[in-house]
Backbone:
């Protein structure tokens, strides 16, 4: 009897009179109204451009739907900025703010803070930008049980260049490739940076590591030794390889520098050790490969004299192609890795500004 009564009560609760059967299903839908307006986080620009040594603001603002106020006043707003890795599987902490508490992480310490131009402004200011700052950043705003995110990409003006050491082609595992780029005042390039360089005309047949662990190379002029002459131009992808055991070249990325790059006027040609000492005597250091590429690409540096660089290579930058000086294209010409003790060349120096 009790079971029967229970079933009758359920029927009364669920089956109220309806004018027709077509509206029955709609009447059975239960609508749940959340308390308070929905939190929205937006970035006014999806991509921001800057350069090494500069300052930049990554835009991020938060709103509540159906209201113009920034917060409800019942919960503290928590703002968290993270940097997304190339595979998106993990995030690197950059900055967290809640109330009067602020915390920055890693090499961002002392270089990042919130703009806070208004009560709903969560924009992040990054000062003294370094090459490693390039990438995608996530702005997350949390209020109580509500949260939302926006993603902003920070692009840096710079140049991508292929690099292989004195040992020759395909001699770097991934970790050695990273160090090789750092030694030449650069970082290992991302796919996006290599793709942009390819669109700007970079053509290189040797495969090189990229920051996501893939091995690729850019071809603008298809030819038989580089994938075949009947293939279309593009960035060729070898896929992902063992970072410890596999060996390739590397594509490095560098940006402008805070200093002066120059060819040292000297009465005689020099061995490598003499070139190092000549730059030191001039109040500078022997220049790195990344610095000659940055001077060539970003400053239009042009010099037909071959000169020593820090890695023991000899190169010269041509921005205005002409007879006997790279007649067919603007490029940083590579002479090779000559005998350091016996071969004589000029030298390129770099003096950092204080």
Residues:
């Amino acid at each position: 009897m009790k079971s029967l009564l229970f079933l009758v009560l359920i029927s009364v609760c669920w089956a109220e009179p309806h004018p027709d059967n077509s509206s029955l299903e709609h009447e059975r839908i239960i609508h749940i109204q959340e308390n308070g307006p929905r939190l929205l986080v937006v970035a006014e620009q999806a991509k921001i451009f800057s350069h090494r040594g500069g300052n930049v603001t990554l835009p991020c603002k938060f709103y509540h739907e159906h209201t113009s106020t920034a917060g409800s006043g019942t919960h503290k707003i928590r703002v968290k900025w993270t940097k997304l890795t190339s595979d998106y599987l993990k995030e690197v902490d950059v900055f967290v703010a809640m109330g009067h508490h602020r915390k920055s992480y890693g090499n961002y310490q002392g270089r990042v803070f919130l703009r806070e131009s208004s009560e709903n402004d969560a924009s992040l200011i990054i000062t003294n930008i370094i090459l490693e700052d390039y990438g995608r950043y996530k702005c997350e705003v949390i209020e109580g049980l509500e949260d939302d995110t926006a993603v902003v990409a920070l692009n840096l003006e710079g140049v991508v260049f292929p690099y292989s050491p004195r040992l020759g082609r395909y001699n770097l595992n991934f970790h050695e490739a990273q160090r090789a780029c750092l030694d030449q005042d650069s970082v290992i390039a991302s796919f996006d940076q290599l793709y942009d360089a390819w669109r700007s005309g970079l053509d290189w047949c040797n495969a090189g590591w990229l920051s996501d662990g893939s091995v690729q190379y850019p071809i603008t002029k298809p030819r038989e030794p580089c994938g075949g002459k009947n293939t279309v131009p593009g960035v060729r992808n070898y896929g992902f390889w063992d970072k410890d055991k596999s060996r390739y070249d590397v594509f490095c990325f560098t940006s402008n520098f805070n200093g002066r790059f120059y060819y040292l006027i000297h009465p005689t040609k020099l061995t490598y050790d003499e070139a190092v000492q000549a730059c030191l005597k001039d109040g500078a250091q022997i220049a790195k490969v990344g610095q000659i590429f940055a001077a060539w690409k970003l400053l239009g540096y042009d010099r037909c004299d071959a000169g020593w660089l820090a890695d023991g290579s000899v190169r010269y930058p041509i921005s205005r192609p002409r007879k006997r000086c790279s007649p067919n294209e603007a490029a940083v010409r590579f002479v090779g890795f000559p005998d350091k003790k016996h071969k004589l060349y000029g030298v390129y120096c770099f003096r950092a500004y204080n």
The mean pLDDT is 88. The helical segments are 2-14, 24-27, 174-183, 191-199, 272-281, 289-299. The radius of gyration is 29 Å.
